[in-house]
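Need tokens for this chain, all 222 residues.
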Amino acid sequence: MTVTQDLSIISLIAEASILVQLVMALLAGLSVMSWYWIFRKRFQIRQARIATDNFERDFWSGGDLNKLYDSASRGQAEGMERIFEAGYREFTKLRAKGHDHGATLDGARRAMRATYQREVDDLEAHLAFLASVGSVSPYIGLLGTVWGIMNSFRGLASVGSATLAQVAPGIAEALVATAIGLFAAIPAVVAYNRFAHDIDRVGIRFESFMEEFSNILQRNLR
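Here are the structure tokens for all 222 residues:
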């Protein structure tokens, strides 16, 4: 009479060695954290695009710069609007102090550049974590797989003749670690590449606005 072994995923995880279970738990934790940041970053980048679209519409509609600045300084400015606020605040402050045109324009540009860097850094926050999960998770899973297979073959050392039924459960539970590693890595890599592309496009829009707004400020100095 042959005994059929349960090869379900749950039973394979429950019967795995302690080290393999720790590897699986670590990978599961990394997967949960990466999915958390995937949803957070997706929402954040989407909000940044919407805020940029809205501000560009208001800015290029021909509205008064002072009114736009008052609105930005009173509300919760973000992204391009915050860049505009920083540049226009520095511009008006330096012009009121009687600085020459070159120093006034350079000061406004530096203020916009500093704010631009902070905005882009905020958008890029935690992208490095997704990149690390995507690159490291398969190797962590492979560690669990190698250890599990080593345990399987060590267990067969005392057996006179090894059969597939004896080898299969140990190898299967070891391969689960690789599967979990890939499950953690693939979404993180895809999300990282997508978010990096989206942030680059938002950053290009910020830089284009800074150049165009600098030209407007230069004309106002004449």
